[in-house]
Specification:
With about 475 residues, the chain is α/β, with parallel strands linked by helices. About 20% of the residues lie in helices and about 20% in strands. The chain has two domains: about 260 residues, Glycosidases (TIM Barrel), CATH 3.20.20; about 80 residues, Immunoglobulin-like (Sandwich), CATH 2.60.40.1180.
């Protein structure tokens, strides 16, 4: 038995999509902090249009912090409580645009707005009117000019090169920082010139964490690499490369020397299996594929590339459906305290509570023990695949429909280990395993993997 094994500080994050602030605060205290999540990505905190679709959050009306997800006070309380639990808050910052162009209206917190008019914030001169396409909408993503000066799905496009616009955005972000947030996801960063984003975030205090959303496409001129000079970017290629392997059972090791081809450098990459857009779009593997989703998350959390962010939202059959809400429009609080998972199926609106899945907690522990140890060359056999984080742990998966054994050579010391995906050790100093147990013997560990399961052992799961 190894009583104390060195653990790296947590680095993984979790996106809690459309979850109210009061519920995130509770999750931080009861689950995220103890499990070892380093940060939580929230949905946009500012006032937006008053509609019940989830995407209302992406149409800002003002920078007041009253939204369907809670009040300013509730947001501030959440940041404090998460911080105290060791979980930093990253807020989703929608700064490329304001509302759709259709009509005048009143925001969720009562602020009036009209076409290109957001009283006290912006007027017509603060917006792009590209004049390049009918209705000024982006039509052709191969045109940098359209992507960065026309309107993304008809949303009033701020001219982020303007001094006054930059100042107004910085004041908003500074306000959030004053409440203790650690950084921002920059929504639709592709649609702002990288120089504009650099100028805006350059005015924020040093150390502010920036994660730009720049969806990679080989066919387009605007590339994620342009946004790595001032922060991290979400690397959309990660899941695009991984998912087909899990679906086909044909595995290929990533390039293990240096950075991966066609991915941003590891220290700039935020990686994910899915997010709120891709689970409604391009992602092949989502909560609907419970077992494969666990496998995908296990491989991501076991990896040595980038900073992973786990995703947790709610089930839906209609792409537009918002999270379950109260009569006054506020999103209903939800608790994952008693949740396990993955479930065989989810009812519409039901929270997936991925942060509560035992496999995720086990893999966060694996990740902490693996620390900076390099990923070694993988082994694949039939529908099974596995790899070692040198001297620290071994992960193995079987994506097929038959039970399969997989022998992985390892430098782990000989002995018995508990699989942390199926339960781990039964107590901190316990002798038994809650789930499967595996033996490392003579430099090999032989996994016995049920259909569509993952397993992982590490120095800290030795019994
Ligand atoms: C809503 C209505 C609209 C209405 C509008 C205004 O749905 O009908 O016109 O209001 O009234 C969200 C929703 C939208 C919603 C919007 C505002 O998704 O439906 O519009 O709120 O309420 C592009 C952007 C990217 C953006 C993504 C959705 O580049 O930044 O579109 N994501 C963020 C948020 C998202 C949010 C917004 C931005 C707006 O995460 O939730 O929208 O704040 C290609 C391009 C990408 C492009 C996609 C989609 O990607 O490369 O840049 O993303 O197409 O157009 C393959 C390809 C890849 C392709 C990808 C996805 O993998 O390789 O190139 O598929 O299709």
């Amino acid at each position: 038995p190894t009583p104390s094994v060195e653990r790296a500080a947590p680095d993984a994050g979790i996106q809690l999509f459309q979850l109210p602030w009061s519920s995130i605060a509770e999750e931080c205290e009861t689950r995220l902090g103890p499990a070892g999540f380093a940060w939580v990505l929230t949905s946009p905190p500012n006032e937006s249009i008053a509609r019940e679709e989830w995407w209302a959050s992406y149409q800002p009306v003002s920078y007041g912090l009253n939204s369907r997800l809670g009040t300013r006070d509730e947001f501030a309380d959440m940041v404090k409580r998460c911080d105290a639990a060791g979980v930093a808050v990253i807020a989703d910052a929608v700064i490329n645009h304001m509302t759709g162009q259709d009509a005048a209206g009143t925001g969720f917190a009562g602020t009036p707005y009209a076409h290109d008019e957001y009283p006290g914030l912006y007027g017509p001169d603060d917006f792009h009117h590209c004049g390049l396409t009918p209705g000024d909408d982006i039509v052709d993503y191969t045109s940098r000019e359209q992507v960065q000066t026309c309107e993304l799905v008809n949303l009033a496009d701020l001219d982020t090169s303007g001094e006054q616009v930059q100042r107004t955005i910085v004041a908003y972000l500074d306000d959030l920082l004053s409440l203790g947030v650690a950084g921002f996801r920059i929504d639709a960063a592709k649609h702002m010139a990288a120089d504009d984003v650099a100028a805006i975030v350059g005015r924020l205090p040093e150390g502010t964490r920036i994660m730009s959303e720049v969806i990679r496409s080989a066919r387009e001129p605007v590339q994620p690499e342009e946004y790595t000079g001032f922060g991290e970017v979400f690397e959309f290629s990660y899941a695009r490369d991984l998912d087909p392997q899990l679906e086909s059972g044909v595995f290929a090791d990533p390039e293990l020397e240096g950075d991966r081809p066609a991915h941003v450098p590891a220290d700039r990459a935020v990686v994910f299996i899915d997010n709120h857009d891709t689970e409604r779009g391009e992602a092949d593997i989502t909560y609907r594929d419970g077992r494969l989703y666990v496998i995908a998350n296990a491989l991501m959390l076991a990896d040595d590339y980038g900073t992973p962010v786990v995703y947790s939202g709610y089930a839906f059959s209609d792409r537009d459906s918002g999270a379950p809400a109260e009569a006054d429009g506020t999103v209903s609080p939800a608790s994952c305290a008693d949740a396990g998972g993955p479930a065989e199926s989810y009812a519409d609106g039901e929270r997936t509570c991925v942060q509560a899945w035992p496999a995720i907690a086990g893999m966060l522990e694996f990740r902490a023990v693996a620390g900076a140890a390099p990923r070694l060359e993988g082994v694949s056999d039939g529908d099974a695949y596995g790899f070692e984080r040198e001297g620290r742990g071994v992960v193995a998966v079987n994506v097929g429909d038959e039970t399969q054994t997989l022998a992985v050579p390892t430098t782990l010391p000989s002995g018995q280990y508990c699989d942390v995906v199926s339960g781990g050790k039964d107590a901190i100093d316990g002798e038994g395993c809650r789930g499967a147990a595996y033996t490392v013997d003579g430099g090999v560990v032989r996994f016995e993997l049920a259909p569509q399961t993952a397993a992982a052992i590490h120095l800290g799961s030795r019994r």
